[in-house]
C-alpha cells in the first residue's frame, strides 16, 4: 500500500497484524522538570497516562497484549525517595485499575525478579492480589515489567533449564527456541511486534532483549506523560509501513 494512502487504523490487524506491543515509558522526570515540577509529580503524571494508552491499544486497535517497562533492575541506582514514590504509585495504580482489568477481561502479569528482598512486602501483596484476581481473564494480557531486566530474564531462564537438564528432565538437544521462550517471563506470549520508547532516547536500556530479535522499534520524541492517543496512532501508522521480512525476501 502506498505511503500516502489513508488507512483506517482501527482495522490495523487486517493488514499489519500486531498482537503484542511494548512501551518503555521514559521521560517522566524531564516532563516534570520542564514544568518546574518535582520528579515525583512527573511519575504521578506518567502513571496516570497508562490507562488511556493501554485501553486505546486494546479497545480501539484490537491489540492482544501490551507490556510496559515500569522499573528496571538498574533503577535501584536512583535515590531511595524516588524509588519509594515509584513503588507507591504502582500500588495505587493496581488498586485503582483492578476493576477495570476485570471488566475488560485483561490478565495482569508482573514480570521481573519478584523474589528480590528489596521489594517491600506491601507492594508484593498488591502484585499478588492483582495477578491472582485476573489470572483467568483471557481477552488481553497486560505485562507490567517490574524489577525487570532483559539480561536477568535470559539468565533466569537459563538457570531453570540448566536445573532441568541436571535433574534429567530435559536433554540439551531439547533446548530449542520455542522451548527457551517458555522459560522467559513472557512465556506463552508471542514475540513483541512493536516496541515504542518515549522521551527521545534511542536505546533499549535492558528492556526485553531475547524477545526483540525481530521487533519493530520506534523512538518517539515525546515524554511519556505527554504521550497521547494521537501519538499512539502515529506509531501504529508508522508500523503499518514497516516491511517485516524476518530474514526472508518480501516485496
Ligand atoms: C521513566 O521516567 C520512569 C522510570 C524509569 C521508572 P524517568 O524517571 O526515567 O524520566 P527521565 O528519563 O529522567 O526524564
Ligand atoms: C528505562 O528508562 C527504564 C524504564 C522505563 C523502567 P531509564 O530512564 O531507566 O533508562 P536510561 O537510564 O535512560 O537508559
Ligand atoms: Mg529515563
Query: What is the mean predicted local confidence, pLDDT?
Result: 96
Calculate the terminal CA-CA distance, rounded to whole Å: 11 Å
Low-pLDDT sequence parts: none
Number of beta strands = 6
Order of helices and strands: HEHHEHEHEHHEEH
Overall 3D geometry? globular
Number of domains: 1
CATH architecture: 3-Layer(aba) Sandwich
| Helical content class | 40-55%
List ligands, each type once. Answer: 3-methylbut-3-enyl trihydrogen diphosphate, magnesium ion
Give the strand line-up of the largest sheet. Answer: 3-4-2-1-5-6
Main sheet overview: 6 strands, parallel
Tell me the CATH topology. Answer: Undecaprenyl pyrophosphate synthetase
CATH class descriptor name: Alpha Beta
Radius of gyration: 19 Å
Determine the strand fraction and express it as a percent band: 5-15%
Individual helix count: 8
The structural class is: alpha/beta
Please tell me about this protein's structure.
By secondary structure, the chain is of the alpha/beta class. The chain has a single domain, classed as Decaprenyl diphosphate synthase-like (Undecaprenyl pyrophosphate synthetase). It has eight helices and six strands. Strands 3-4-2-1-5-6 form a six-stranded parallel sheet, sandwiched between helices. Helix 5 links the parallel strand 3 and strand 4. The protein is globular. Bound molecules: 3-methylbut-3-enyl trihydrogen diphosphate (2 copies) and magnesium ion.
Amino acid at each position: 500500500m502506498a505511503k500516502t494512502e489513508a488507512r483506517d487504523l482501527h482495522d490495523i490487524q487486517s493488514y499489519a497484524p500486531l498482537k503484542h506491543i511494548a512501551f518503555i515509558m521514559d521521560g517522566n522526570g524531564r516532563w516534570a522538570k520542564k514544568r518546574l515540577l518535582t520528579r515525583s509529580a512527573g511519575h504521578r503524571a506518567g502513571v496516570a497516562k497508562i490507562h488511556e494508552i493501554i485501553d486505546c491499544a486494546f479497545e480501539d486497535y484490537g491489540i492482544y497484549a501490551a507490556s510496559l517497562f515500569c522499573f528496571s533492575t538498574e533503577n535501584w541506582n536512583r535515590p531511595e525517595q524516588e524509588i519509594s514514590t515509584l513503588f507507591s504509585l504502582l500500588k495505587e495504580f493496581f488498586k485503582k485499575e483492578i476493576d477495570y482489568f476485570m471488566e475488560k477481561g485483561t490478565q495482569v502479569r508482573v514480570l521481573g525478579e519478584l523474589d528480590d528482598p528489596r521489594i517491600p512486602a506491601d507492594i508484593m501483596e498488591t502484585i499478588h492480589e492483582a495477578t491472582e484476581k485476573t489470572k483467568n481473564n483471557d481477552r488481553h494480557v497486560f505485562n507490567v515489567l517490574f524489577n525487570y531486566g532483559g539480561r536477568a530474564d535470559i539468565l533466569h531462564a537459563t538457570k531453570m533449564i540448566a536445573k532441568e537438564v541436571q535433574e534429567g528432565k530435559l536433554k540439551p538437544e531439547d533446548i530449542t527456541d520455542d522451548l527457551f521462550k517458555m522459560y522467559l517471563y513472557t512465556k506463552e506470549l508471542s514475540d513483541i511486534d512493536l516496541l515504542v520508547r518515549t522521551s527521545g532516547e534511542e536505546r533499549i536500556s535492558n528492556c526485553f532483549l531475547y524477545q526483540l530479535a525481530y521487533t519493530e522499534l520506534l523512538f518517539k520524541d515525546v515524554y511519556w506523560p505527554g504521550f497521547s492517543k494521537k501519538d499512539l496512532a502515529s506509531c501504529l501508522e508508522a508500523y503499518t509501513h514497516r516491511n517485516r521480512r524476518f530474514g526472508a525476501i518480501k516485496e
